[in-house]
Amino acid sequence: xxxxxxxxxxxxxxxxxxxxxxxxxxxxxxxxxxxxxxxxxxxxxxxxxxxxxxxxxxxxxxxxxxxxxxxxxxxxxxxxxxxxxxxxxxxxxxxxxxxxxxxxxxxxxxxxxxxxxxxxxxxxxxxxxxxxxxxxxxxxxxxxxxxxxxxxxxxxxxxxxxxxxxxxxxxxxxxxxxxxxxxxxxxxxxxxxxxxxxxxxxxxxxxxxxxxxxxxxxxxxxxxxxxxxxxxxxx
Length: 235
Prior knowledge:
Blueprint: E1 4-11, E2 17-23, E3 26-31, E4 34-38, H1 43-53, E5 63-67, H2 73-81, E6 87-92, H3 95-102, H4 110-114, E7 118-122, H5 125-130, E8 138-141, H6 161-169, E9 177-181, H7 186-194, E10 198-205, E11 213-220
Parallel strand pairs: 5-6, 5-8, 6-7, 8-9
Antiparallel strand pairs: 1-2, 2-3, 3-4, 9-11, 10-11
Helix pairs in contact: 1-2
């Protein structure tokens, strides 16, 4: 049996322990001993980016936000979907997660982070949203385990009414907000609708054909509520 090699750790602001491991050529992150993500199972993260970025495959100057770097799969899928003049802002709270992805010894997301379209912001995505009103064409949120947070209590603010309103305010056009969730969350879906969003719920497996089923909420504003693009302040 091949060994499970512990490569690093990080502490969230509320004390949860994240650990990076390598096993048989794959990388995984555990949160307080429970597997949170793995390089072997990332299809739902890929779909998150595909759904958000598809409308901008041929658009000029698209600017999108990814909340949560993870192991970089949403970022890489976004880069594949977007043209050469796009900008992808990635908000990641933990410096260690950024370091793991950019470490050439691991090779997790080095090429993606070196892409000139990418700008990593070491900050809470909630702050990035507040400081970029009207700043993004599409927003992808994959923090913690979705609305039912597992590792950081502060993440719940993002999925409450005030957080949803701040996310809507950060859109500059008709683009989607796509949320990743470990499973269906009817209360969260109702919260999105309560805040005036149209919601389409899609499901995607952790792996293309196997593994648990995850939920993707694709939320858009009704056309009458969409405002014209505006200039943005940048964090």
